[in-house]
Amino acid sequence: MPAPKNKFKQALKNGDKQIGCWLGLADSYCAEIAASAGFDWLLVDGEHAPNDLRSILKQVQVIEKSNSSPAVRLPIGETWMIKQYLDAGAQTILIPMVESAKQAKELVAACHYPPKGVRGVGASLARASNFGGIPDYLTTAGEEICLLIQIESQAGLDSLDKILEVDGIDGVFIGPADLAADMGYLGKPKEDVVVRAITDAISKIAASNKAAGILTLDEVFANKCLDLGASFVAVGIDVTAYANAMRGIANRFKP
Q1: Which of 5, 24, 105, 181 is least surrounded by Cβ atoms within 10 Å, i.e. has the fewest?
Q2: Domain that holds residue 113
């Protein structure tokens, strides 16, 4: 019996557009609501949301029961941390702040067992292997892990060509907010120079053998990125949607 099929990874391989939403409310009940909405993928954020391994696991578990695919953004690309999230059953992970091909290669190694990589062999304890119930997990897990890396600095953009040559990277995600800040436009990701950098990067990624991704709440820009070849695009954030809805209700009744 092999590792569970990663339908999100397969969709990217097929070139199918995947529309998603960012989850930062850090609550499995809220994640279940999002999972009923019909998105192709849902990203549970461990970088900027008040999440830890246990809270992320609970959200992944409820998303897995839906038609949406769960993805997890780790706070940082540490080998020991990647090991824990993979063992907990996350098959699609997004690593922030990648700036070099060397770093990308280290992340690939962290996702695979020896001799291909350095992932610690503890599958018999892991939820990922159904606690030892998947006899072929060790030999098949790597094929179902989807590694997405996040480029969000000028250094990352400068290294993009080399990063795209790294085997084992499934997708490259552009982070507009941090990229804008790094380029000198803090809080201004819609500046022309930033937008050009983003669209140029998406076009370059889409022309490679990697999938291109982005998060944007601008519907026009989201469609532009899709037209440029982006294949996994997050178009909403649960925190923002909830906050705007609650403020809208209050403002209608309280001047």
Answers
A1: 5
A2: 7-253
